[in-house]
């Protein structure tokens, strides 16, 4: 298909996907302004990717845009108007309309000096990649592609409209966006883009942790994050934003089945995503599981010990790794919930390997479930994904053993409420039986009963009372 036909087809497809665009364009035309569908909306339509959002650009200034859409939209918001953007909701779709931009950057700070432009060509030149620098002028149905983004789209190449050095100096976050698009779209960065990312990696330090975190999260939520992560690591950007990941290249896996722990972790991430999709195919991508899969072995380099005969061990790497994961996620401004959940999964991921051939007692199974809590389903996926041996017999044995553990958990859950393990006596009963007032001794007694519950399962009331009084007497607590 030649470019002329492709562009004509693109316009037809875009109009079919967005009948609202025609309606909105008519309003702008009546007001004496031009309206363009632009950027990711055009790119995704050409790729056959459906999106509920549409991006537009126009020669109208923001206050004028606001006036044009105020009576048309179901809802209008102007929180981005200082940057030239007005948002509109219409028939369940979210639209953003931004005035042509011609920003200037001091290349020291993080934010541009916002200035408005007068041409679509100038606006497209300032965009991040050529595949995002295509537009459709809606009144005339004209496809505008001054930087040959259509060819880049066909060839799956990420290149910049201006030189990559200019583009990344203006906004270093674009380097992370290159990695994100490599993951989301399966595109390859052009050699000159890779060179610029490598030489300018330090410029990412100008960007706030929140913006970095947002891009990394989008990258990890892609169908295949691996190409994006590899681009970050290969260019040195990974050393600036997620240094624990390239740091794993230093360690050799103890099973000698992988080139290094870094490659192993990328494989675990891919397998976790496969399990995520097969287990809950209609659910949203799981950022917590993916972060845990990527970071589960970050403690290995710090705990590596060489053994006689050429072996390597990583004792307690799960403890060190959980601490490292917590520190990095906190630096990236992730939420407390995400930080707690990811670090707990990293901490627990190795525990299953003590299960052996089923030697765990019911008490050990209860503790596994209780310590995982609401993370148990994710922990199941992480542990299964962590099996990356190429030895089919060994892999099958590991999966069979985990099947056995899950069956043990299911059997106990059928008899006990494993999801909410509580002592057989509550705080009020403890105080009444021991004749004590609220204080530390109540907490100690509660903890004792909780441990007893984990060890022996549910007790009859009289048995729990007898055990409590026996323990209290030994501790010199209360009237027992």
Automatic annotation (TrEMBL):
Pfam (any one): PolyA_pol_RNAbd
Molecular function terms, GO-annotated: CCA tRNA nucleotidyltransferase activity; metal ion binding; nucleotide binding; tRNA binding
Species of the source: Amycolatopsis mongoliensis
EC number(s) stated in the UniProt entry for this protein: 2.7.7.72
Gene Ontology biological-process entries: tRNA processing
Superkingdom of source: Bacteria
Gene3D superfamilies, A to Z: Beta Polymerase, domain 2, cca-adding enzyme, domain 2
Record-annotated HD domain positions: 261-412
Cofactor: Mg(2+)
Keyword presence, Cytoplasm: no
Protein name: CCA tRNA nucleotidyltransferase
Matching PANTHER family: CCA TRNA NUCLEOTIDYLTRANSFERASE 1, MITOCHONDRIAL
Keywords: Magnesium, Metal-binding, Nucleotide-binding, Nucleotidyltransferase, Transferase, tRNA processing
């Amino acid at each position: 298909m030649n470019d002329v036909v492709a562009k004509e087809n693109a316009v037809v497809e875009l109009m079919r996907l967005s009948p609202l665009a025609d309606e909105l364009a008519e309003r702008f035309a009546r007001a004496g302004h031009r309206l363009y569908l632009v950027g990711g909306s055009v790119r995704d339509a050409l790729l056959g990717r459906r999106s509920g959002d549409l991006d537009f650009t126009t020669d109208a200034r923001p206050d004028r845009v606001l006036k044009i859409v105020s009576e048309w939209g179901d809802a209008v918001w102007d929180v981005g108007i200082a940057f030239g953007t007005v948002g509109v909701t219409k028939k369940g779709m979210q639209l953003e309309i931004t005035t042509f931009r011609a920003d200037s950057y001091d290349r020291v700070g993080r934010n541009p000096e916002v200035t408005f432009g007068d041409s679509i060509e100038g606006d497209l030149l300032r965009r991040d990649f050529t595949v995002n620098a295509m537009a459709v002028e809606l009144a005339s149905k004209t496809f505008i592609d001054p930087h040959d983004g259509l060819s880049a789209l066909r060839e799956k190449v990420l290149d910049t409209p201006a030189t990559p050095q200019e583009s990344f100096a203006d906004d270093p976050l674009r380097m992370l966006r290159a990695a994100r698009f490599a993951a989301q779209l399966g595109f390859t960065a052009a050699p000159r883009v890779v060179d610029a990312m490598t030489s300018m990696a330090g410029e990412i330090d100008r960007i706030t942790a929140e913006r970095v975190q947002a891009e990394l999260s989008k990258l990890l939520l892609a169908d295949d994050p691996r190409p994006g992560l590899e681009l970050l690591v290969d260019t040195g950007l990974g050393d600036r934003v997620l240094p624990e990941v390239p740091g794993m290249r230093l360690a050799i896996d103890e099973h000698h089945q992988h080139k290094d722990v870094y490659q192993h972790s990328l494989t675990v991430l891919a397998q976790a995503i496969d399990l995520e999709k097969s287990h809950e195919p209609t659910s949203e991508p799981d950022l917590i599981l993916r972060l845990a899969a990527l970071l589960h072995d970050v403690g290995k380099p710090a705990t590596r010990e060489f053994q006689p005969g050429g072996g390597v061990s990583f004792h307690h790497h799960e403890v060190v790794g959980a601490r490292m994961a917590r520190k990095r996620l906190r630096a990236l401004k992730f939420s407390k919930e995400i930080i707690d959940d990811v670090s707990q999964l990293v901490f627990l991921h190795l525990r299953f390997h003590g299960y052996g051939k089923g030697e765990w007692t019911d008490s050990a199974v209860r503790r596994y479930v209780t310590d995982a809590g609401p993370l148990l389903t994710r922990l199941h996926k992480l542990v299964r994904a962590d099996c990356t041996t190429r030895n089919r017999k060994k892999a099958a044995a590991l999966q069979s053993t985990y099947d056995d553990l899950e069956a043990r958990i299911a059997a106990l859950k059928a008899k006990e409420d494993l999801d909410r393990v509580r002592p057989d006596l509550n705080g009020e009963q403890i105080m009444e039986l021991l004749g004590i007032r609220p204080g530390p001794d109540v907490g100690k007694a509660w903890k004792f009963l909780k441990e007893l519950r984990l060890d022996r399962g549910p007790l009859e009331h009289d048995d729990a009372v007898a055990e409590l009084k026996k323990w209290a007497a030994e501790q010199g607590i209360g009237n027992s």
